[in-house]
Every structure is written in C-alpha cells, then in structure tokens.
Design a protein that fits this description.
By secondary structure, the protein is of the alpha+beta class. The chain has one domain (2-146): Alpha-Beta Plaits, CATH 3.30.70.120. The protein has helices spanning 13-22, 45-58, 105-116, and strands at 2-8, 29-35, 91-100, 124-130. A 4-stranded antiparallel sheet has the order 2-3-1-4.
C-alpha cells in the first residue's frame, strides 16, 4: 500500500479528475495549498492572471502589518514579490492524495503526469510514500480491505 501525494497547478484539477476517473480511481482527496520551489514563487506574465484568480477563489488572507510581521507581498527581509502579491512568494496549488495498492501506483502516477505535464515550470511534483496500514472507521476493517 502506498500514498501518492501530488502538488499540481490549480487549473489542471478538472483534467486530473477526469483522467483518474477514466482509469477507475475513485478515492481522491484534493486540498488547497501554497508553496514554492526552484522558481521561488515567480510567475510569468501569462500565469499572473491565473494565480491572482486562484488567490481570490481560495480567499487567502494577506500577512498583517505589525512590529514583527512583514507587509503582504514582502519577504522576511522586506523584499517585495510583485509577481505573486503574496508573502514570501508562495503560489497557490492543489495537493492530491491517493492511497493505492502497490500494483496500481505506476498506472496512477503515469495518469497524473499525463494530465499535468505542460513542459513549463510549476507543473508539479509527485511523491510516493509507503503506508503501514489503513483502517475503515465505520467497520474497523484494516489493511488493503479498508481501501475497497
């Protein structure tokens, strides 16, 4: 049993859902997250509009001004990140979580890659982690039977 965690572009969620549905994956959790990687939260002009729209949909609250807090849109050192308009250059993303049988992992991961690969920075990351067990709360079933 494995846990698949994928950090994806928000605008690719519907495509990802459809792709996973076509291969028979029904147990999926999507979460709103923010983060940054090598591009340090930088955006191209083309992506700027989409990022701002996602910020509004997520109803992110900017960092408050105060004695020890930077203003919204600034880093710890007071530097401004104009591309993102958010503190520390974090970008809104979606996190997908799937628990799957070992034999299904490669097929699921390939489907996620196919649905999200655009060739641009920020296409996402996928992490595969071992799971010790799963428990269905309603019935008390454990292990692989708790997944079905």
């Amino acid at each position: 049993m494995k846990q698949i965690i994928a950090i994806l572009r928000d605008e690719r969620v519907e495509t990802t859902k459809k792709t996973l549905g076509r291969i028979g994956v029904s147990g999926v959790t999507f979460l709103y997250v923010t983060g940054r990687s090598r591009q340090n939260g930088g955006l191209s002009a083309r992506d700027l509009g989409r990022s701002l729209n996602r910020n509004l949909r997520m109803q992110l609250t900017p960092a408050r001004s105060g004695n020890d807090l930077p203003d919204a849109g600034t880093g710890i050192d007071g530097s401004f990140y104009p591309d993102t308009g958010s503190a520390f250059g974090f970008l809104p993303k979606r996190m997908l979580v799937i628990i799957a049988d070992d034999g299904e992992v490669n097929r699921i991961v390939q489907a996620i890659v196919n649905a999200n690969q655009t060739g641009r920075h920020g296409d996402g990351r996928i992490f595969i982690c071992p799971m010790i067990s799963a428990i269905r709360v309603r019935t008390g079933e454990q292990g692989d039977t708790a997944l079905s």
